[in-house]
Amino acid sequence: MEKPIRNRKPKSDRENGRGNQPANVSPNGNVIAPGTTGRFLVLLREDAVKNAAKTLRDTAGVRAMSSADFTEGAGAEHLGESEALVFEDLGVAVVNTPPDQVKTLSAAAARDTGILAVEPERVVYALRVTAPPRLADEELIVEEFFSAAPPVIDRSIVAAPPQEFPVDFLRGYRDAVDHLVGKLLAIGGITEAAVGEAVAAAFSETEFTWGLQATKVALSRFSGRDTRIAVLDTGMDLGHPDFVGRPITSRSFIEGQEVQDGHGHGTHCIGTACGPRQPAQLPRYGVAFNSEIFAGKVLSNQGSGADGGILAGIQWAIRNRCHVVSMSLGAPVFEGETFSRIFEQVARRALGRGTLIIAAAGNESRRPGFIAPVGHPANCPSIMAVGALDQQFQIAGFSNGGLNPQGGQVDIAGPGVAVQSSFPRPTLRRSLSGTSMATPHVAGIAALLAEANPGARGRELASLLLQGARRLSLPARDVGSGLVQAP
Amino acid sequence: MAKVKLSISVDEEHLNQFPKIMKEVEKAGMEIDQELEDLGVATGAIDEDKVAALREVEGVEHVEEEREFQIAPPDSDVQ
After folding, report:
1. Is ipTM strictly over 0.90?
2. Would the pTM of this model clear 0.90, i.e. be above it?
3. Catalytic residue among A291, A399, A433, A436
4. Which among A199, A325, A390, A478 is least surrounded, fewest beta carbons within 10 Å?
């Protein structure tokens, strides 16, 4: 196939030449939302990737090309109008299309066409999808989806032989992205940090915890209806007044101990992921208030547990067809230590059955002096690792970082400092900090996404979480793709 | 002989013969606590000097010593 796109000028040149034209208007005159490219990402169901070209043509009249047809790396920014580039290995198509076609695509997503979701391409994400698909073996694809960390991709790009990946082309693309980000931020004369501070000042917590506000759960119309969340932890206070009347399935995997939470950690985490819309006392602290709760006790009342109980809990969650497993637990690993092959295999098998496992990155860091690597099992490539942010959208001092290659990244971040949630009677409510508190925010939001996108399960759900995250001006090492956001 | 607590996983190829593999690992000396067939995993214990032989059982892909977890006590503010 001919490669006409390679001869075109990089977008940065064209943009520079456009002089006074505002950055938020695309070359075809359409208004572009800040932080997006004006193109759209179409998430394809795994079995529908092969026929993507036909689907896109039939539903929206889009001419689709395959990234596999380009021997030297394909770039979405060279797409002409009504053209799409399909990344088979990623299950994603980048579509350059006018707004009326987007509507057609969104409508197609609601039918059974193999299109799972349509959303604006984000500026930073664009850099990620240009990674060479041919370099991605099965393991790397997992990491693509589970880590939107641009620096990691950057390194692989540099390492790629020139004939496989044109570095100049990439530099041009990076410049274009940097340029665009700079312009967008300059428009309002504000920086990302300033945005964070402004928002933090507004967190009053009279109606909603700061975490529900920062993740936009407070504004979401979704509630996790018809979804199931398993929280594997210290159990739950089954008589907590905020959960009266909620369907709760529970099981203890700790010999000699009932599910009833004698520690408090489990009740707190379940509160964040699944707590009620109207708790006895404001603020509301729970994300997926209509989700079905599966409380698995894999840690004792003394807070201890082992691989065996956790694996048993995961099997229990899969058998109960839980959409999400939230695990606010972990064991420290050393820098350079590899992930557990068994947990990785289990996580992949879980994804294959439609169950996404989300785990805490760990609290062993003492920033700024010391950053500890993401712990076990969050360091598995197919388990989503969650870091913790404070109300100023800064990384929490204890939150572990992505130091180890191959799955050891932080994938996403959630609110994890001064998090109010439920606590066993008689305390009822307590504020705690930790990546343990950030994790159930992500799990609850995964349930909202599962409700909003009934076709998206397992890996697709993971990629929706990552794509939807709010980008922050913090290292991807610490926050992955950013702050988790509700649909 | 000291015992090691461990987990083993069965490879994709032998997943449909899970019960048979369980018999084989028992023959190799493993005392099975849990057969987690949905995961293709078993947990249990074995004499230290038999771990190497366990790795050689056909269908066994990974063998890992069990890790322990400990979260912070309830009165800690960081969890």
Report:
1. yes
2. no
3. A436
4. A199
